[in-house]
C-alpha cells in the first residue's frame, strides 16, 4: 500500500478574469505535496465538471475575487452536485466574494449551508486554508509490488 499525492482542482467562476489568485493557491497546494489541476481564469462550468469526471480529485478549490462570486457560485455548486457521488470531492471557496470585498459571517454560513465544505474569506484565509489542508486525509491506494 502507498499513499498517492492528493489531487486538487483549482478553478474560478466563468466571469472572473483574475489569474494570480489561482496561481497563488496552486503554489500553496503544491508546496504541501498536492498535485494541482489549475483550470485557469474564466473557468467554464462544464470544464470543472469534466475535470472532476476525468481524474480522481480529492478537493475542488474555487477562488473568485471579481465581486461576482456570491451571485455565481450557487450555479457552479449546483453543477458539481450533479456529478455522480464517487467523482464528487468536497468543494471549498474563498477570495473576495462580494462587490465590497469581504463578506460577513452570515453570508459565510449561508454558503456553508448551501454545501461548501468550507469558506475562506478574511485576511487569515490562507492560514485557515492551510490548517484545513493539514487535516485532510487521503485514502491510501494499493500499488503493484
Ligand atoms: C490585477 C487585477 C486585475 C487584472 C487581472 C489580470 C490577471 N490576469 O489576473 C484585470 C485588469 C484584468 C482586472 C479586472 C477587473 N477587476 Co481586478 N484587480 C486586480 C488587482 C489589482 C490585483 C489582483 C491580484 O492579482 N492579486 C494577487 C493575488 C495573489 O491576490 P488575490 O487575488 O487577492 O488573492 C489572495 C486572497 O484574496 C486569497 N484568496 C483568493 N481566493 C482564494 C480562495 C481560497 C480558497 C483561499 C483560501 C484564499 C483565496 O488568497 C490570495 C493570496 O492572499 C486587484 C486589487 C488588489 N490589489 O488586490 C483588483 C480587484 C481584484 N479587481 C477588482 C475589480 C472590481 C475588477 C473589475 C470588475 C474591474 C472592472 N470594472 O472592469 C474587472 C473584472 C474582470 C473580470 N471579468 O473578472 C476588485 C474586486 C472588488 C471586490 N471583489 O470587492 C479589486 C479588489 C480592486 C478593487 N479594490 O476594487 N483586475
TrEMBL record:
State the source organism's domain of life.
Bacteria
Q: Which InterPro entries match?
A: Cobalamin-bd (IPR006158), Cobalamin-bd_sf (IPR036724)
| Pfam families with a match to the protein in the record | B12-binding
The UniProt record lists the B12-binding domain at 5-140
Protein name as it appears in the record: Cobalamin-dependent protein
Tell me what organism the protein belongs to.
Answer: Streptomyces atriruber
Amino acid at each position: 500500500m502507498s499513499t498517492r499525492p492528493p489531487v486538487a482542482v483549482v478553478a474560478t467562476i466563468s466571469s472572473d478574469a483574475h489569474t494570480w489568485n489561482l496561481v497563488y493557491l496552486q503554489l500553496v497546494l503544491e508546496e504541501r505535496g498536492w498535485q494541482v489541476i489549475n483550470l485557469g481564469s474564466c473557468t467554464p462550468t462544464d470544464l470543472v465538471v469534466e475535470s472532476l469526471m476525468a481524474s480522481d480529485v480529492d478537493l475542488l478549490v474555487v477562488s473568485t475575487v471579481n465581486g461576482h462570486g456570491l451571485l455565481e457560485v450557487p450555479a457552479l455548486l449546483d453543477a458539481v452536485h450533479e456529478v455522480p457521488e464517487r467523482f464528487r470531492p468536497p468543494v471549498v471557496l474563498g477570495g473576495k466574494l462580494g462587490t465590497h470585498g469581504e463578506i460577513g459571517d452570515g453570508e459565510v454560513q449561508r454558503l456553508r449551508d448551501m454545501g461548501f465544505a468550507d469558506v475562506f474569506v478574511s485576511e487569515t484565509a490562507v492560514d485557515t486554508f492551510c490548517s484545513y489542508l493539514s487535516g485532510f486525509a487521503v485514502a491510501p491506494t494499493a500499488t503493484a509490488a
